[in-house]
Amino acid sequence: xxxxxxxxxxxxxxxxxxxxxxxxxxxxxxxxxxxxxxxxxxxxxxxxxxxxxxxxxxxxxxxxxxxxxxxxxxxxxxxxxxxxxxxxxxxxxxxxxxxxxxxxxxxxxxxxxxxxxxxxxxxxxxxxxxxxxxxxxxxxxxxxxxxxxxxxxxxxxxxxxxxxxxxxxxxxxxxxxxxxxxxxxxxxxxxxxxxxxxxxxxxxxxxxxxxxxxxxxxxxxxxxxxxxxxxxxxxxxxxxxxxxxxxxxxxxxxxxxxxxxxxxxxxxxxxxxxxxxxxxxxxxxxxxxxxxxxxxxxxxxxxxxxxxxxxxxxxxxxxxxxxxxxxxxxxxxxxxxxxxxxxxxxxxxxxxxxxxxxxxxxxxxxxxxxxxxxxxxxxxxxxxxxxxxxxxxxxxxxxxxxxxxxxxxxxxxxxxxxxxxxxxxxxxxxxxxxxxxxxxxxxxxxxxxxxxxxxxxxxxxxxxxxxxxxxxxxxxxxxxxxxxxxxxxxxxxxxxxxxxxxxxxxxxxxxxxxxxxxxxxxxxxxxxxxxxxxxxxxxxxxxxxxxxxxxxxxxxxxxxxxxxxxxxxxxxxxxxxxxxxxxxxxxxxxxxxxxxxxxxxxxxxxxxxxxxxxxxxxxxxxxxxxxxxxxxxxxxxxxxxxxxxxxxxxxxxxxxxxxxxxxxxxxxxxxxxxxxxxxxxxxxxxxxxxxxxxxxxxxxxxxx
Amino acid sequence: xxxxxxxxxxxxxxxxxxxxxxxxxxxxxxxxxxxxxxxxxxxxxxxxxxxxxxxxxxxxxxxxxxxxxxxxxxxxxxxxxxxxxxxxxxxxxxxxxxxxxxxxxxxxxxxxxxxxxxxxxxxxxxxxxxxxxxxxxxxxxxxxxxxxxxxxxxxxxxxxxxxxxxxxxxxxxxxxxxxxxxxxxxxxxxxxxxxxxxxxxxxxxxxxxxxxxxxxxxxxxxxxxxxxxxxxxxxxxxxxxxxxxxxxxxxxxxxxxxxxxxxxxxxxxxxxxxxxxxxxxxxxxxxxxxxxxxxxxxxxxxxxxxxxxxxxxxxxxxxxxxxxxxxxxxxxxxxxx
Lengths: 704, 337
Ligand SMILES: [Zn+2]
Description:
The complex is a heterodimer. Chain A is of the alpha+beta class. Helices cover about 30% and strands about 25% of the residues of chain A. Chain A has 5 domains: about 1-80, Phenylalanyl-tRNA Synthetase, Chain B, domain 1 (2-Layer Sandwich), CATH 3.30.56.10; about 100-290, Phenylalanyl-trna Synthetase, Chain B, domain 3 (Phenylalanyl-tRNA Synthetase, Chain B, domain 3), CATH 3.50.40; about 300-365, Phenylalanyl-tRNA Synthetase, Chain B, domain 1 (2-Layer Sandwich); about 385-600, 2-Layer Sandwich (BirA Bifunctional Protein, domain 2), CATH 3.30.930.10; about 615-700, Ferrodoxin-fold anticodon-binding domain (Alpha-Beta Plaits). The model of chain B has no long low-confidence stretch (mean pLDDT about 90). Classes of the chains: A alpha+beta, B alpha+beta. At the A-B interface, strand 2, helix 7, helix 10, helix 12 and helix 13 of A face helix 5, strand 1, strand 2, strand 3 and strand 5 of B. Zinc ion binds near residues 261, 263, 271 and 276 of chain B.
């Protein structure tokens, strides 16, 4: 709401300057968002530039959507008296028109007046100025007056050309009863209005959409002589619904849907009639006022002790009483009890809490002390799961990955690019009804599409080291069986499992210290560091199955026998689709963080530091190329001897020195007993057994 | 008996030609070894008269002491030189890069969020979570925002169905916690929120932290003190904080909280639009209606709630001037924090 400083001064003379006024209003809840000088003033000498306040009126304060309303607030804040503009009108004769209201719930009051012999013409300059300051274009004196009163008093009015109304009759009724067709003032022909749209009709047809917009047929034009001026009160929810549905927000609907002042109906009508007589020479006739159930105010009683208790401040009874009185809430005080009766324009005040708020805001938030709470102690902090998420973030950051945050949306077509099977559960995604772009119409079921976009974005900008991870929820519309069993949640809302995704791309040619040829192992290393940091003991990398990953350079990750994710190099097709034009692989990975969290071991239990020495033995076996080192290592670790403490792989060789199609794997094995120092003979016996077992299990031979 | 001074001269001459530890050791053996010159000479003393023998013995011992001293000095010197040349030959180019794994960085939103979480958990707040896809009931109705309420215009909403939305704020977590746990309560609820809006100053997704404290005697004065303490920790203990009336359907009285502009010190600049103040969070006393809707009796309890945007705080803290940077995931941006 824009309000000019000089217009406010016409209503209330506070004696305050521009800045003081702005501050006073801001600190009382009417935030002045902007202070501007008026534009387009030609002669600064005859008329100084006015100042315009941009007032942020919160949705609860419909009463402040007018100059009168803001002035009323200033009056309450300063005690300066409020001056009303003249509105007493001399009228002659009877109403000349009959008003019928079909549903007094939707239209609680409908008043109007015929004004004859108006001379349509331009508005006076002072009126044009005020309209333009507000941001409304001047049209003609009659339309301008309705707009002027709307800004001045906050009540919407509508003027019809009387001679276009059929049958001297106004009926306020639903579209379903009166016809669903109307051409509105904006020139749009609306053919099929919803049945519950409230309309203003004459004897034959709809002439306006109540509270929202008038009809083109009955518009006031250059040749209009007699008008019918409408001032009414419509139910906020109905107006809002209609305005939203038709996409027809207007200054009128804006005020009606926030709650207009029902007692202002007749005053606004009179004020506009007065101006039409003064400016357009019209002759007002008697008003019609259909107001079946007059306004009944709320009566609210509050205990001042409770106000003080809630605020933690000490406004006295008299102060509280004074505040409520200045706000026009008609208080009566009896000891600590105050009864307040809010006026018709304060529809927002209907409970004790509303009174507390009024007292607090006029008393001044600045005067309320700051007192730290005295309360029972309780342990705050993060849950174990939340801590785990931060642990994961730190682990990946330490491993060189920057944290990405992407929108939760995905382009469903990317799933085709990924080559997901039709029955892949990730194709079942939550759809947004009103997305900003079609590409953002679905919620992510996997983090990979976003990370591939991140790869593309950074790569095409010449970045040669792209390591990113993201931790976010994905959205699964149909609950997986295991969760339903565990939590028994209703299936209405989607599940929001937590995922960790990452991507790795690095152009190695410029690295000074050379790294292993296969980037897969670098990326896998980051996962391993994370698993190690959170102490996931056993994780198993099996042949990958994701369609978008290189089948020979990808793995599915299993923890405790359950699939926890995957890692691998993008297929060349995918790399091309995302414009990664480089010889290096682009590695991506994704983990089910809920599953990882569920797999965390408990608190570590201390084990004695070994008292007896260990003895190490190396062994190199030549096996077929297809044999996985991990499987051989597992054979060693699982060999049934209490003396094998640990084993690790330390060499892989393929080449001239051994048979083609074979490779040599070398392992270091550490033997130890917890009870004694092992003798060479004892170890030799176990080791021989192990070697024999290994060769038969792998079909290999010992490397000489 | 030959002249011992000649022996000394010969020894010193010979020692002067020796360079390495090995050569010096050989010389020691030659003169002082079991079959060395000194031993030989001592044996030959037996042939002399007792007086002469004593005198010659004394001279030989003097020589021995001198030789040992000189050998040790020379040897130490040689050892030092040999070590120095060995070390010199092993020198590497220390200006070459270290084998260094540059750590990645956490997203600025995560950094700000975890800092705020740390401050509130330090005050005994727990951290609660709620779904991002939320029932209209929790996102609006239970927060005193019925259908067709103008306050719904304050938030453009993504709809999944007529009664399911992407949460537009973290406030629904308030209701979920109030329904589940018994007061006294104090918690914060961080998370993603969504608004159907995208331009220079809006992204369709951003992050908020909600907070709530509920008990028997929680006051507006408490709200002020807790939020002031918080803002003084996040920004600086000197930053001015002001509370001004505002409107949120789920709090009453409601307060918008501003801090003195950290860029101009309150004098007025482009960032604070000349006001000297920067809006930082919304807050208020829990509307009794919200307690009722959550099944609690508002006569026995009171509470305050607050909510703030993480991107906004991150922008102020790091001087980031474009909201969209947060979600482009440009490494050159992410690597800075
Ligand atoms: Zn500033």
